[in-house]
């Protein structure tokens, strides 16, 4: 079956619904409308700074009579929103000759980290790449089991030890296995505990250290998974994880359904970290390479 379009997936988001309700063909372009759009951006988690940037641009364009119709307003909004995401639109490139290409996945519990790893593995396997998974979230038994079950269903090897095992040791073993089997890609899960910043830093530093013993360049990508429904808390999580490890890419999940949809703009403006993928649903093909045009287009009426 055909994968759902971005518009279908994002239609339920607060941003798409409220912009669609506000901007209709006959809507007069006036200060009230602009105020309503600003409120709608703020309510949808776009964040104060990013919303102000968008509104300044729209107000200038209205003042100089460059926007006199709803259609022109949508076009200006589209151009501005896309331009704000330009700097973070950079797909993950794994054709760099690293073998295995090591992806370390980090993020707090419940954001969709395990699901994302499964979807990614499947995507790479579909591209005829050999993938090995490391069940490095040893803190939760359920996380190890979930990854193992997923690996069995999809015939992707999963290197795991029991709950409570040392995460760095599991990832080290998996890296050795990936090297000896000449796998193309290793995706390592990590424990999503954020309750002590020091613990998180120590753990991730140790993982990097042991990987570095086997390949000085590893990890080649540190993917931070963020739940798109958590609003400004997402900004806090990126800040916390960035203190512990050099995050090189973001995955923003759960943008389908009733997500607010605006947090990507806040993240882009605040951090400039590439958004590699977005989660638009629970199925395998719902993990999409981030595409700013498709994303913004789906939010606008
Ligand atoms: P983890 O604790 O971070 O490993 O989270 P899980 O991978 O177990 O995911 C938590 C829940 O979020 C599961 O029910 C997933 O199916 C769901 N989930 C993950 N990604 C998405 C997404 O993009 N959209 C939706 N709607 N649900 C998602």
Automatic annotation (TrEMBL):
Single GO biological process annotation from the record: SRP-dependent cotranslational protein targeting to membrane
Membrane topology note: Peripheral membrane protein
SMART domains: AAA, SRP54, SRP54_N
UniProt cross-references to Pfam families, sorted A to Z: SRP54, SRP54_N
EC numbers for this chain: 3.6.5.4
CDD domains: FtsY
Residues that hold GTP according to the record: 107-114, 189-193, 253-256
Domain SRP54-type proteins GTP-binding: 274-287
Keyword Thylakoid tagged: no
Keywords, sorted A to Z: Cell membrane, Cytoplasm, GTP-binding, Hydrolase, Membrane, Nucleotide-binding, Receptor
Domain of life: Bacteria
MF GO annotations: GTP binding; GTPase activity; signal recognition particle binding
Function: Involved in targeting and insertion of nascent membrane proteins into the cytoplasmic membrane. Acts as a receptor for the complex formed by the signal recognition particle (SRP) and the ribosome-nascent chain (RNC). Interaction with SRP-RNC leads to the transfer of the RNC complex to the Sec translocase for insertion into the membrane, the hydrolysis of GTP by both Ffh and FtsY, and the dissociation of the SRP-FtsY complex into the individual components.
Family, per entry: Belongs to the GTP-binding SRP family. FtsY subfamily.
PANTHER family registered for this protein in UniProt: SIGNAL RECOGNITION PARTICLE RECEPTOR SUBUNIT ALPHA
Subunit structure: Part of the signal recognition particle protein translocation system, which is composed of SRP and FtsY. SRP is a ribonucleoprotein composed of Ffh and a 4.5S RNA molecule.
UniProt protein name: Signal recognition particle receptor FtsY
Species in which this protein is naturally found: Pseudomarimonas arenosa
